[in-house]
User: Fold this.
Amino acid sequence: MSLFATTIGIDFGSQHTRIFLSNAGVIFEEKTIIAFDTHDSGNKKIFSFGNDAYQMLGRAPESISLVTPVERGIIVNQQDAIAFLNISLNSIKTFSLGKPAIVITVPTHITNIQLRTAYEVGRLVGASEVIPLQTQIAALFGSHIEGNEVHGRMIANIGAETTSVAIVSLGGMLSYTCAPLGGVDLDNALVAYIAQKHHIVIGRHTAEQIKLSYGCVVDDGSNEVISVKGIDTVTQLPKIIKLKKQEIALAYSNVLYEIIQIIGQVFRDTRAEIISDIIDYGILLSGGTSLLPGFDVLISEKIGTPAQVVDDPSRVVIRGVGKLISTGHIEAYTLAASGK
Ligand SMILES: Nc1ncnc2c1ncn2[C@@H]1O[C@H](COP(=O)(O)OP(=O)(O)OP(=O)(O)O)[C@@H](O)[C@H]1O
Ligand SMILES: [Mg+2]
Assistant:
């Protein structure tokens, strides 16, 4: 593999796309969504993309179609993925770079066909070479850890729609898993809880805002109450209800325990020395959902090892991609190198 002077790193996440450019750093972070204007049925025009398009979720008129090219960590529509990446890369003027190599993160549960789609998308947005990199490896290197150290280290990246976990030693994954579960499932659980207990329908956007402002994982005994606006399921009229903060933790509980179970799975078949290292060093937590207050403590209690959220956890994957590109070590850690 020849690394070109310019290499672009892309963390193509279910909710966020982050782009790293060699010699410039992380220069792009937008929501992975694109809004098409479908007024003229024969001619789909891009109306907006990224954070602007995300604001339209649940609010767009019929003539606007909102599409998310990555779902549960996987490219679900090749054309939409190309449209999104083209507009993103154009916005940071990478077209002046000729044909760069593109490193793209992929989840470990990717099938061969889905991997082929990732190669194809990279090629069609102008890559001279497409280099797939597993999310967990990128997350480990992005956590300011030398991924090739001899001790066993463990990382759990809990994103919007996926949870990727690995135990790594000497730069190789000893045990790993990736499951289609993340922050969006907490939002869906809150929507369902409020519909069932309070008989109003709220949007997923509102549920996410509640999580970002008041999200919690245990009943801390507080009587704090928040107002939530929605539509009465019986009268179909607007209604405001009072939601206790402790109900939020209750609504999340099943999803939280499922995520913890996924994290615990990687211990199966792990040797005692490695487990002892992990007890010493703790589980590193990353991804946006690791920011949910108290989740680190809950994980630590339920799994029985220390767990700590890494610095700037949402950007850890792209930071790791950048580190591997900048140090010229990416070749050793790509999916091709792992023999998968
Ligand atoms: N402070 C916070 N508390 C709780 N959740 C948060 C917080 N900040 C962000 N999140 C959640 O983190 C998720 C986004 O995380 P991230 O950017 O790591 O996902 P992604 O990389 O796009 O998705 P994936 O890796 O699953 O494909 C969203 O569900 C968001 O609501
Ligand atoms: Mg991610």
User: Anything to note?
Assistant: Residues 144 and 320 are 8 Å apart (CA to CA). Residues 245-265 form the longest helix (21 residues).
